[in-house]
Amino acid sequence: MIQYAAIGDSLTAGVGELFGGGFVPRYGRFIQERMGQQVVYDKMGMSGARSADILSVINYDNKVRAALQNADIITITAGGNDLVDAAKAYTAHQDEDVFRQAIVKCRQNFGGILSVIKQLKFGRKPYLIRAVDLYNPSPSMPEANLWVKRFNRHLVSFEDANLKIANIFNSFQGRERELLSLDRFHPNGRGYGVIAEELHKQGYGPLA
C-alpha cells in the first residue's frame, strides 16, 4: 500500500471543480497504475492559505505531521495566494517591491516546509516530494507573468534527489480559457488533469 499526503492551498483542496476532487485523486490513480499498489491519500488543502499558513500547520498540527511522517509520496502547493496578495497591493500602489518581498517570504517559508518534512522523515522509509509551480491566471498583466516566472525559478532551486517540481506554468500558458474554471482563477477538471499528468511526468524515484 502506498500512502500519499497532499498538503497545500486551494489547488490541493480542488477548488474550481465541483465533483472531481482536483488533482489529488487523479495523481493517486497515476501512482496506483505506476506502482501497482493500492493508494491511500490524505488531502490537506486549505483554501486561501499562504505559504506561512502551510508552514504553521506542518509545524503545529499533529494530525498533519503524522500524515507527512507516514507518507511515501508528498505533494505541495504553496505560494499562489502570496503572489495574489502582492498583485493586489501592486494594483493599488504600483510598487514592484511588493512582489520582491512576497517572493523572499515564500522562499523562506517553502524552505521551512521542506526542512520540517525532512526532520519528520529522518531515518524512515524512502519517500518522494513533488511540488507544483505557479501558473499565471492573469496573463494580460505582464508584471504578474514576470514575477510568477521568478517565483518558479526559486522553486526549482530546491530540487534534489527527493524533490521534483512539476512545471504547470508552461502547460497553462495560452490555454487559460480551456483550463481555468468559471472563476478564471482556479483550474477546472481539465486543468487539474494537466496538473496530475505533470506530477506523474516527474517520475517515482527514489521509490521506483
Automatic annotation (TrEMBL):
It holds the Pfam family Lipase_GDSL_2. Coiled coil: none annotated. One of its GO terms (molecular function) is phosphatidylcholine lysophospholipase activity. This is SGNH hydrolase-type esterase domain-containing protein. It comes from the Bacteria. Residues 6-192 form the SGNH hydrolase-type esterase domain. InterPro entries: Ester_Hydrolysis_Enzymes (IPR051532), SGNH_hydro (IPR013830), SGNH_hydro_sf (IPR036514).
